[in-house]
Specification:
heterodimer, A: 427 residues, alpha/beta, Rossmann fold, eight-stranded mixed beta sheet, 16 helices, 48% helix, B: 257 residues, mainly alpha, two-stranded antiparallel ribbon, 11 helices, 2 strands, 3% strand, globular
């Protein structure tokens, strides 16, 4: 490989020569492709290969009984990477369905640790561990409640670690759903002052949780004209494609980098079908909402999928329940679990009002007026409607950094993006 | 290897026997909004389906493995990673990779995969000599010859034997009946070779046995060290199903290619 390094170098140099200085050269211009592949390894910001961090946990609700089927979710878990001396502490909130341990969270941990911060990584309130141990209602999706739950675990985590870390000031960030939640947390903090966040950066937030979820639900069906009944055949077709890819490439693994080389080698002759890419993205979202919905149904005993009086044990098969929940979309969850709960909480609330309630628009005045808030987004973010994008640009004005490409969270580890994040908190 | 596993196997089965019976239910289950009968049609294929007639036992072993991992395996691996510098860890991995090429040689040959056989043969030659007894993987880094991965389970598959029921092995994790048989054959071949190699050293019997056990122990640690999977970190209540599906798909793929 090394002996070809100079050829690669030459290619990079000549490729770069054509574009104007200062242009944004993130390599993937197709939002579906960037959302799936992310930033290819050769184009990523330089980060340490491994850093030291602690895995920590505590009980949020000591009285809560965790059902046997979730026996491995005893405590709320999170991670801390800390500097030796005094430093600012940043909280990072994960995106939909992701844990503090997800690869994008490990990435943020490295970015901010390398930049001199203590870093606390928190799972999304839509992640199983959070729903089972730290969500008061175990019904994620009401962003007001989710922000309360996050604020509670942030306070408790800080209580747990403050003996060993010296903190100068507090910062907050989050990506995707975690970005939208960060805004609501920042607002809470204005009243409660546990942290007095100095700055808060929202990375690729949805404007309205419901709208974005519906976009992703629709993406899933793009290559499935007959609906979810077609999924098995579509999936087998995809596997067949991988066998062909293996024959062309000579090896197979499932890293993003491999997918990028596949994309470069095969794209020229066999461009991927847009609808297949859309379905892949939709399927990933469907899987994380499946995990969320099932956990929520079991924890709340709502009787959506599991009978209210059925006590699932640690060795019970869940395969049939998976088949049911796999046919359940986020919109179904909203209609059948979340909205009924909203109605008990806010009597007389209409469905439209409930959808508005979980939107950043609900926070518009605060978003407009607070100088501590910043936004990083992409023109081609899949989860935003044109109105959503216009809203973000209008509300954040000069506090918004919008890149031309990157899809949904595809360009987070591109050097220019990483530099912007660090600069945002440090300047 | 197999002998070292016996006490663990015994412990698992005692454990499983203890928590076998589910409580007897008298009351009928309350109706749900989305019943299984309406969404999971018998005879229709679903991505998540797998042939898993021993599922209750498998799930218990899976849970056992998670606990074993947390309290025994991972702490040992952590200590290993703490004590040994990174380059030495790579050296250990290379060393065992080189020794276990013996099963690659056997299985590529049994499947008439001549190119893969020659690659493997070349790798052993280069790595054992220039690579200082296998400590350095010269074949990959300098010559770009990647390690093959052909085991006896794949050989059985090559001769038309299906995977049979899915099986979770204590400590070792996901497998199926065919691959477990394959693993047994590979282990015997590997042990016979190791027996010969160790005998060449001309040591006392007690030292020989000690060396054999230590090599097996470090091999197990190295295997876990190389595997990044952590139990119950997927954030999915369906982790058992997902791991099962990925294992079976991946094996099918390896048999086909």
């Amino acid at each position: 490989m090394k002996r070809f390094a100079w050829i690669v170098l030459l290619l990079v140099l000549t490729a770069g020569a054509g574009s104007p200085a200062g242009a944004y050269d993130y390599p993937l211009k197709d939002p579906y492709v960037s959302t799936i592949i992310g930033t290819p390894e050769g184009h990523q910001a330089e980060l340490p290969e491994k850093i030291d961090y602690k895995l920590l946990s505590f009980k949020v609700f000591p009285e809560r009984r965790i059902p046997d089927v979730f026996w491995y979710q005893r405590e709320f878990r999170y991670s801390l990477a800390y500097q030796k001396g005094e430093a600012p502490l940043i909280f990072v909130v994960a995106g939909t369905g992701s844990s503090f341990y997800a690869s994008s969270m490990i990435f943020f941990q490295k970015v901010f640790y390398q930049a001199g911060f203590h870093v606390i990584c928190l799972s999304s309130p839509t992640h199983m561990n959070f729903i089972a141990t730290a969500s008061r209602t175990s019904l994620p999706g009401n962003i007001l409640d989710d922000a309360e739950d996050l604020y509670r675990v942030m306070t408790m985590a800080w209580e747990q670690v403050k003996g060993r870390v010296k903190v100068s000031e507090f910062y907050l960030t989050g990506y995707s759903l975690g970005a939208a939640q960060s805004a609501f947390i920042a607002k809470l903090d204005e009243e409660r002052h546990a942290f007095n966040f100095k700055k808060v950066l929202m990375i690729n937030p949805p404007v309205n949780l419901f709208t974005s979820a519906r976009i992703l639900d629709d993406l899933l069906l793009r290559a499935l004209p007959g609906g979810m009944d077609d999924f098995n055949d579509w999936f087998n077709g995809l596997l067949g494609r991988f066998a062909e890819i293996y024959k062309t490439m000579g090896y197979l693994d499932l890293t993003n980098d491999y997918l990028y080389s596949v994309y470069r080698v095969i794209y020229k002759t066999h461009p991927p079908r847009q609808e297949d890419l859309a379905t892949m993205i939709g399927a990933a979202f469907r899987f994380s909402s499946n995990n969320m919905i099932f956990t929520s149904d079991v924890m709340t005993r709502s009787g959506l999928i599991v009978p209210k009086n059925r006590e699932l044990g640690s060795a019970d098969s869940l395969t049939d329940y998976f088949k049911v929940v796999n046919r359940t979309s986020f919109v179904d969850y909203f209609n059948e679990l979340l909205f009924p709960y909203f109605k008990t909480r806010y009597p007389g609330l209409t469905r439209e009002k409930a959808i508005e309630l979980i939107s950043l628009r609900n926070l518009e005045a605060y978003l407009r007026s607070s100088p501590k808030l910043g936004l990083m987004g992409n023109e081609d973010d899949l989860i935003l409607t044109p109105e959503d994008l216009a809203f973000l640009k209008d509300v954040f004005g000069s506090r918004a950094k919008i890149y031309p490409f990157g899809g949904h969270c595809g360009n987070m580890s591109y050097p220019a993006n990483v530099a912007y994040m660090i600069d945002f908190f440090k300047s | 290897m197999a002998r070292a596993l016996c006490p663990i196997l015994l412990a698992v089965f005692i454990l499983l026997a203890g928590c076998g019976a589910a409580p007897v239910r008298n009351e009928p289950e309350l109706p749900v909004k989305r019943p299984v009968s309406e969404y999971a049609k018998p005879g229709k294929a679903y991505v998540i389906d797998a042939y898993d007639p021993w599922e209750p036992m498998n799930r218990r072993i899976y849970n056992f493995n998670a606990i074993f991992d947390e309290y025994v395996f991972l702490p040992v691996v952590d200590a290993y990673e703490f004590i040994l510098p990174g380059f030495a860890q790579t050296g250990v991995s290379n060393f065992y990779n080189n020794l276990t090429e013996v099963t690659n040689l056997m299985n590529t040959l049994l499947q008439f995969k001549i190119v893969k056989f020659l690659h493997t043969f070349g790798r052993v030659m280069i790595n054992t000599t220039v690579g200082l007894g296998g400590l350095i993987d010269v074949a990959t880094t300098v010559d770009g010859i990647k390690r093959e991965n052909e085991d006896f389970g794949q050989t059985l598959g090559f001769y038309g034997i299906g995977p049979g029921p899915y099986l979770v092995l204590p400590v070792l994790g996901p497998s199926d009946l065919r691959d477990t048989a394959g693993l047994a054959v590979d282990t015997v071949v590997y042990s016979l070779m190791m027996g010969q190699l160790i005998a060449e050293l001309g040591m006392d019997d007690t030292y020989e046995v000690a060396l054999n056990y230590s090599l097996t122990g470090v091999y197990a640690i190295d295997l876990r060290h190389k595997e990044s999977f952590r139990y119950f970190m997927t954030g999915s209540p369906f982790e058992y199903e997902v791991v099962r599906k990925i294992y079976l798909l991946q094996r099918q793929f390896l048999v086909d290619n």
